[in-house]
Design brief:
Length: about 375
């Protein structure tokens, strides 16, 4: 697993694990550990919770969202101690940092990105310490993972995009060709195509999560090619600034960013880890914590931001009608779904569950630039 991190970085996933994609069957590594006993309780005043971040907490995006969750933990449990390290590399240095957390006495270690074997090796050697890995894939007695089902919010925003575009060309500022990016881009395009079948999407991968210059260049190229609605999955608002300057629309990721382009801003996939982090720390303190997989769901960890000031009310209402359906249990990711070669990947009658979408590694029909 660790081999994928040097090239892709944060939120990278195992490729090729989606042979059971249509059925949505979890690979064994994703299933919860069976028969594991909860870790022993810890008094709040004796507790240390450590957070390992993939970026700086001031990035205004992914890591800032996680840091807001850390702040919620501090508020809920004022007697415990928290420590964190920013910008942990995807290398042996990550193993060293996680080992240091254990050496300092941490009872719970939370990595806000996927560190694969770098964190698993440490967890295997510290069975009395709980480990949580964001966008992870392995579950043992003391190692679990968590992730947000961001694809539903992206689908909802995609409906607005499909109704607002005039050129029927959406632009996507991507990072790496990995499943979390495919899920984001595909969901947005499928949402747009559900109301405007003529929509296509051009994607550019900038090979970074935080590179404002590269994101600006990609966004400008997409607009020059005819895209009049930008979206993406970067950790800062560069492409929103481009949209504002060029008089088009944009949807963002991680947090609400309307202040960087109020006329262009449509919405954002917003993340909130506060409740989840507080629940996990509480479980670790009271002795009920064990390694397990967790999806944070729509309206309970991830959602769309309030609509931008230039989004017509009727368009917002149509998009929100789908949000209401999803909250009631409807899943819009249902076949037939073709890939960008025209081949049917999801047959009619098949619905992609979260486990399957979590492993998406191909672009849907109408997508170019992500493979």
């Amino acid at each position: 697993m660790g081999r994928s991190f040097a090239s892709s970085g944060r939120r990278s996933l195992l490729r090729g694990a989606a042979a059971s994609f249509g059925a949505g069957i979890l690979p064994g590594a994703l299933r919860p550990a069976l028969g594991a006993s909860p870790l022993k309780p810890v008094a709040e005043e004796d507790a240390l919770v450590a957070f390992g971040h993939t970026g700086p907490i001031t990035d205004g995006g992914w890591t800032t969202a996680h840091d807001l969750g850390v702040q919620a933990v501090r508020k809920a449990f004022p007697k415990l101690k928290t420590v964190f390290v920013e910008s942990i590399p995807y290398s042996a240095d990550a193993t060293r940092i996680f080992r240091q957390f254990v050496a300092e006495g941490a009872q719970l270690v939370i990595s806000t990105s996927n560190y694969g074997d770098f964190i698993k090796d440490v967890a295997d050697r510290a069975p009395d310490v709980g480990f949580l890995e964001c966008d992870g894939h392995t579950v043992t007695g003391n190692l679990g993972w968590y992730y947000i089902t961001h694809w539903y919010a992206s689908y909802i925003i995609g409906i607005a995009a499909g109704l607002m575009t005039k050129t029927n060309q959406l632009g996507y500022v991507g990072t790496f060709p990995i499943p979390s990016v495919y899920a984001s881009a595909n969901a947005t395009l499928l949402g747009a195509q559900s109301v405007n079948p003529a929509c296509t999407m051009r994607a550019i991968a900038i090979n970074a999560w935080f590179d404002p210059q590269a994101a600006t260049q990609a966004a400008s190229a997409l607009v020059d090619s005819g895209c009049d609605f930008l979206c993406g999955i970067t950790d800062e608002p560069a492409y929103l600034r481009v949209a504002e300057a060029r008089g088009i629309k944009a949807a963002m990721w991680n947090l609400g960013m309307r202040q960087f382009g109020p006329k262009a801003y449509v919405s954002s996939v917003t993340l909130d880890f506060s409740r989840f982090y507080v629940e996990q720390v509480r479980a670790r303190l009271n002795g009920s914590w064990r390694g397990a997989p967790h999806f944070l769901t729509l309206s309970d960890g991830v959602d769309r931001d309030a609509w931008g000031e230039t989004v017509p009310p009727d368009i917002a209402a149509r998009a929100d009608a789908m949000r209401t359906r999803i909250l009631a249990g409807y899943n819009p990711f249902r076949g037939p779904i073709r890939d960008n070669t025209g081949a049917i990947r999801v047959p009619e009658g098949t619905v992609l569950n979260d486990d399957a979408i979590y492993q998406w590694d191909w672009g849907v029909q109408g997508m170019t630039g992500l493979g």
